[in-house]
Amino acid sequence: MLVQPGAMVGASPANFDWSPTGAQLLYVAPVDNEAGGQQVLWRYDAGTGETAMVLNPSEHEDNIDVTSAQWSPQGDRLLVTGDTALWLLDLATGDLTPLAQGGSAKTAVMFTPDGAQVTYVQDNDLYLLGIDDGQVQRLTSDGGATVFNGALDWVYTEELATRAAQPAYSWSADGNWLIYLRLDETAVHSDPITDYRPVPAAVSYTRYPTVGTENPTATLHALTPGALAPPLEVPLPDGTEYILPFFTWTPDSNHALFITVNREHTELRLNMWTPQSGELRTLITETAPDWINEDRYAAPVFLGNGEQFLWVSERDGYMHLYLYGADGTLVRQLTEGEWMIDSSAYNLLTPGRPVHVDPAEEWAYFTSTRTSPLERQIERVNIGTGELQSVSPEPGLHMAYLSTDGHYLVDQYSATDVPPVTQIVKTDGSGKEVLAKAAGPALDLPQVQREFVTVKAHDGVDLYAQLVKPQDFDPNRKYPVVVHWYGGPGLQMVSNRYGTTNIFNIIERDVLYTQDGYLVWRLDNRGSFGRGHGFEAPIFGELGKVALDDQLAGIEYLKTLPYVDAERIGTDGKSFGGYMTLYGLLHAPEILRCGVAGAAPTDWSYYDTIYTERYMRTPEVNPDGYAATNLIDLVPELQARPLLIHGLADTNVHLQNTVNFVQALEANDIEFDFIPLPNSGHSFHGDGLVAALMASEDYLGQCLTK
To answer: CB neighbours of 224 closer than 8 A, spacing ≥ 6?
Structure first.
């Protein structure tokens, strides 16, 4: 039954991009929705309803990456990348012309505002390429192994750029100025990643700032192409530690806007800089006593000629939309209530853009939890009156992308019993057209039964959960239970969506475990995403404690069900879920018989600065919190025999977490199982995923069998 990722669901269109003029949509999808098939570039005309193949990479000798295709500002050409060149595709003729041939990879590619030139990053330096004359201008010269110009290092990519689709630089509308982020990670210590397959083994290094150590130094610079003067260094507010890697300019090109955050993650500022005068102003300051979810903020959206802008903020406990004057004066709050605009990385078709505005600037579009925290519905608010309207009628989790002309939306959604559907919706409500439907389970496999449950935490707070049963569920039987959890901040496990393949491999586990005769249980504890900051904040300072308490309340509910075998409850978790597995086995041995810990952090002092300090501060500031969550020191109390799974090429949760935990197990004569995955990173794919699932199935079969 074990399959490769995607085979359980089928393929869905991705990488959507509306044309800057008209209503033509670029997207990437394999032919016939074949999971794992060759990605092909398509164009859909919303006016005519016609779909046509634009580019098939298999037909070209260069390894063309159609996932990076982008429109020229005039909407007549496309820019794509290859291994050895950039390529310009003329949509009228179909001609494919190579640009900037040779050399190393070219990334962060972008047209200049007039469409006459292209900027890109190569070897961590910025370059400017003339399309007609082929002339290349090197804009920066100090890029290298530890200096990144217009590009991101590991920690920025992992923790701050999950929503930033655009490169870490931005052109002013008139093309006279380019502002860019510069990261210098010289002072960041290196961690080795060893590939044991060759002889001798190959060692590579990742600059990885662990808690309390030096971060990459972030600075902001601006230049004028062709100018003899060196780039200007943009002044930063006092206390700046992080610069969010997305920027914007006022429509008149006179001012650049950027967002900064302090090291403690308690202060976020929207700043405006004027290149002509060098003046820096802070327009908006957001504060929080615990932490700010800076990765959910976005650049402001200007209206008209720049007299006003839209801003998303979590200041009232929920992410909502606010209207501001150009000088940073609040005009009014446009949305409010105990629900949130979803600006997360995982629920956007257009990363970095949680809010879309029609050309008439009448309506602002977004996805929200107003209907239910278990769903994401497309909604719009009238900027003038504040009227709210729902756009997506189908239940489930929706993602949206507004066309440039404001007449159409890409609406990609799914529900527990509906595989992903991609449709084009008219914003006036006059109709819709289905663009693609995922195939659903590609194998002839038994279906499962999923039901949502609301349980009470020990303090009375409602917690949302999901119980998964086999197709042939018999209420007169006693079933063992696999608690499949995550438990950490920023993510949501329980929602009305199809169990698509992702880091958690939800659908694979549901089918696998229910066929083995288990129930599968998921619960979103305090700290989880989707219910506002007040629901997240209780985890602050000691990761695991509140989460486990909520999870145990869910297990107590399970034990009341007549078909649950309370003596046979195990766990399966990955990443933070792996941490929760070990934390749960240590703190609730009388309840949890066994557990699978995949890629588990075992000591938060090993993890990166941005994530860990956001929720835990540093060991110097919070020694008790770090001591309470150091699982390695708690190993002598472990009673169960855990299964540990870790990718040997994991650059996120480094192998030292598992190695040091194993050493403590051995020192205390505690039995364990360990599955190392060669060449697997933090997300298990291909053979590594299959090996992890097989090992988990065997382990739980031994543990949960009477």
So the answer is: 176, 177, 178
pLDDT of residue 440: 63
Nearest CA to 124 out of 160, 153, 166 is that of 153
Q: How far apart are CA 381 and CA 507, in angstroms?
A: 35
Distance between CA 695 and CA 163 in Å, rounded? 34
End-to-end CA distance of the chain: 24
- What tokens does 225 get? 């192409």
Which residues does residue 28 pair with via DSSP β-bridges, in sequence order? Answer: 14, 41
Question: What are the φ and ψ backbone dihedral angles of 392, each rounded to 5 degrees?
Answer: -105, 110
What single-letter DSSP state applies at residue 119?
Answer: E
Give Dmax (Cα) for the chain: 81
What stretches of 1-106 adopt beta strand conformation (E)?
Answer: 14-18, 24-30, 39-45, 50-55, 65-71, 77-81, 86-90, 96-99
With b meaning 16 or more CB within 10 Å and e meaning fewer, what string describes 390-401?
A: ebbebbbbbbbb
Say how far apart CA 99 and CA 131 lie, in whole Å. 7
Task: Please tell me the pTM assigned to this model.
Answer: 0.96
Identify the residue whose tokens are 């049963």.
469
With bands split at pLDDT 50, 70 and 90, how would you rate the model's confidence at 493?
Answer: very high
CB 364 within 8 A of CB 323: no
Q: Closest Cα partner for 543 from 593, 584, 502, 500? A: 584
Beta bridge partners of 128: 119, 137
- Is the peptide bond prior to 73 cis by the omega test (within 30 degrees of 0)? no
**Both structure tokens of 292:** 């700010």
Q: Which domains does the chain have, with CATH numbers?
A: 1-103 (2.120.10.30), 112-299 (2.140.10.30), 338-441 (2.120.10.30), 448-704 (3.40.50.1820)
Average pLDDT of the chain is: 93
Task: Give the CA-trace dihedral at 385, 386, 391, 395, to 10 degrees.
Answer: -150
Does residue 1 register a pLDDT over 50? no
Report yes or no: 455 and 463 within 8 Å, Cβ to Cβ: yes
Q: Which two tokens stand for residue 620?
A: 């110097």
Q: Map tokens 């739980």 to a residue.
A: 700
Note the pLDDT tens digit of each residue in 159-209.
997 655 568 999 999 999 999 999 999 999 999 999 888 999 999 999 999
